[in-house]
Amino acid sequence: MPKYNPAEIEPRWQRFWDENKTFKTPTEVTEEKLYALDMFPYPSGEGLHVGHPEGYTATDIVSRHARMIGKTVLHPMGFDAFGLPAEEHAIKHNASPREFTEKNINTFVRQLKDLGFSYDWDRQISTTDVDYFKWTQWIFLVLFDTWFDADEQKGRPISELPIPAEIKEAGEYAIRKYQDEFRLAFESHAPVNWCPALGTVLANEEVVDGLSDVGNHPVQRMPLRQWMLRITAYADRLESDLDQVDWPEGIKKLQCDWIGRSTGAEVDFFIGDKSQFETWKNTRTENGFPQALPEDALRVYTTRPDTLYGATYMVIAPEHGAVEELTTAEQGPIVKKYCDDAAMKSDRDRQDDRTKKSGVFTGSYAINPITGQPVPIWVADYVLASYGTGAIMAVPAHDARDFEFAKTYNLPIVAVVAPPAKGELDLEKLLAGEICFAGVGTAINSESFDGLATDEFKIKIIETLDSTAVGRSAVNYKLRDWLFSRQRFWGEPFPILHELDEAGNRTGIMRPVPLESLPVDLPFVEDFQPHGRPEPPLEKADDEWLFPVIDGKKYKRETNTMPQWAGSCWYYLRFIDPHNDSAFIDPELEKQWMPVDLYIGGAEHAVLHLLYARFWHKVLFDRGYLHTPEPFKKLVNQGMILGDVEFTAFRDTNEQWVSAELTCENDERKTVLQATGEELHVVKLDPEQAEKEKDGDNFVLKSDPQIRIDSRAYKMSKSRGNVVNPDVIIAEYGADSLRLYEMFMGPLHQSKPWSMAGVNGVRNFLDRVWRMLVDEKAEELSLSSAVSDHAPTDEQIRMLHKTIKAVSKDIETLGFNTAISRMMEFVNFFTKQTERPQSLMEPFILLLSPFAPHLAEELWKLLGNESSLAYEPWPKFDESLTVDALVEVPIQIMGKIKTKISIERGKSNKELEAIALQDPKIVTLLEGLTVRKIIAVPDKLVNIVAN
RNA sequence: GCCCGAGUGGCGGAAUUGGCAGACGCUCAGGAUUUAAAAUCCUGUGUCCUUACGGACGUGCGGGUUCAAGUCCCGCCUCGGGUACCA
Predict the structure, then answer these.
(1) Residues 471-500 of A with CB under 7 A from strand B
(2) What 3-state DSSP class applies to A182?
(3) Does A304 have pLDDT greater than 90?
């Protein structure tokens, strides 16, 4: 009995595609190319998750469709395989991270092949391949060899960096040190996020609420020598070039916010006696605004220079360089204690304290350059050393944080901006210092500037500050330079050698490992367990690796490794030319394939990966290795797939039901009774036990409708036990069903709950497709007798053309869920037809093929075709055949539908009106009414206004 | 707190430019087929009123614009996600 049996069909076609290299990327790239890319996965030990195939199926459908419309397609897959989990696993099991990673990759490849994706497997890469990270190291050296020319807004070779005459005179060593200060990859000794549990430092982006992103371990600040990448130099371009790409607005905004560009002014407040202020100001006006931080002034950054008249005190960060100098002898001990405490505090503690502000007075005053009045200088940890100048002018009347601080320490509050007239804010209260207003408005208490609107004021005041050289306009970014080194084993080694002197100490001279000596492979290390101290595991490599001698000079290798992000910053380029051993990519091939036309992946990479990759791309672009300024033309984020919907109810310790609205979660994420905090039992219910409230939106217990229950889909997680394994779905329903279901669930970008019943639903559809063509009662696999070479009817032809049109359009807009529903309608229609002309069945199978490729290939063959349908021309439709001759037009009276008439398409509104008014039902309904107006929309509706 | 996104039947979701709300699928109910079951096929399935014919209501809530609003405008509510002292 030839029933639809995916377990037999699917492996057979997968083998066919593999053996025939059906999806090998063509070497001749035609004008119309498609580069469809998935965010490559981290090959975890758990294997593929059902979230992975969602995006992968979408790009696969687009790729398969593109081949059929004649495009040349590049559709590759690879693995982002460096990273902490493999190393942690290796430590735990005393094994090699490489072996573990390779095993996981094999599982992933097997699972991906089971899903029938049309990847060109000859291009498979892993970031951990030595042949791959050779070029990651090479790109690092490009960064090392590049400085950013701010005037040209462009990265240039370090050899083109202008060297000041006095440096030149000081000799080669001075020149090298000078260059090192400008490189895009540079060493720094700044405080970093050190995570003792992971034994490594982390990027700001990898620390969430003072805990590590991976594993939730505490993170502390400590100064360490680190490699940094100067991503801040590219901040403006990373922001402005977002207009060039077709990305979701939300993601663009996230990147913009992350870059956090703000404009305002830097203002110097004179430190010294009020009597010398005029002299200071005059000297300033003569000499101009100093580039470097002056010693006789405190420099602040503000986005609201228009509130300068309201600056009643100043605050510097505890780490600010001038703390000691500004602290008076009397205040010395308490300031020192405050700063020491702040330094001890972890980021986590700082978060907790954020609700209340603390600070201490330094004892010093600075002179407001516009009013000439002295203001006290305080130290407080609500000012960050790393942003702006690490010092602020505090305007408590117009900044919520300053307001809170001023209230706590009884500092004066002066209102200088009146809210817009319409506002409900009470001006009296504002003037009395009782409330704070942070918006824009009209200047008050600002001498000659009074009455100016905020925006005008800003421009005027900057002009004034500029003319006397006490201030200037300035731009700031939230974006920080990228901390690029990790103290772990399982990452790319840096291709950098540190020159040593006779005594074995670093001379400070660095030497890049030359191209011919790349890659720098990971050495064998007996034990790479983190020990809670910041010496990287590579320090334990043998001397031969650690201390190379070149031209008689002894060097020590850099022993930090690169972070996981490094490999994923450029993998999309390597896919274009994966086996090239003389360059990271052939420039000709790069021109043919870049940019990536469609990039699909999860929104969790909205800032990190996408920002880092764009940054590297721009550097490589500036240095002439690439021809596009942006790597990813169109980006789509797939939504998260949640677990099946769950109903939960709550019971107290006396086994009594508790209604859901009386519960809440406590700090330990346990469900408790809101009123008393009593811990409750969480009971998972069978859907049978739940029902919807009679008049309300809540679900309640069927047995006791007074008790509300929770109905929600949760994120899939091991602990919740709601994880769906794709292998199980494939075994039970088939890969085509899994692919189809994930596409049918809803819009790609939306998060949606899994439903086993839904999988069964699409499997049902595939069964129906099978039966539409196959005679299930026959002994051998053969066509159903309904399938014939009969001439199709007009209705049948229209059905096909409508379906072709809808499916084609939906693939273009990635509306896969509606494409599938249109194909379901086609099948519903034809299974009722006793004659199913083969000439209509064939195009339908082609339409289905990108979605359910195994089944489509099988049926295509059954219909008598010899070869794979992968490159068959996509069916075309005739516009005139996509509409019916007759249309049903509703007739409304006062906007309410009264009847429907079936008429020929294309009637004018006059004709429509006449037909409507003659309709017997309408005539009856209009009796006694006066027709005031008739609106007729051709082929759509008629609305009669009558009363 | 701030910034996004979303609220449509029992559930997932459809609905060019405002123009027939609920396509398609699931669920459930009834029927056919069968010795029986599975599978399959057919019919029905927003709510309320009505024996029926039919009618009223209905896209989170309250207003508004319009001949006509899920769609546009104003004001809220709830949920999901992101983010957090960035001056």
Answers:
(1) 476, 478
(2) coil
(3) yes
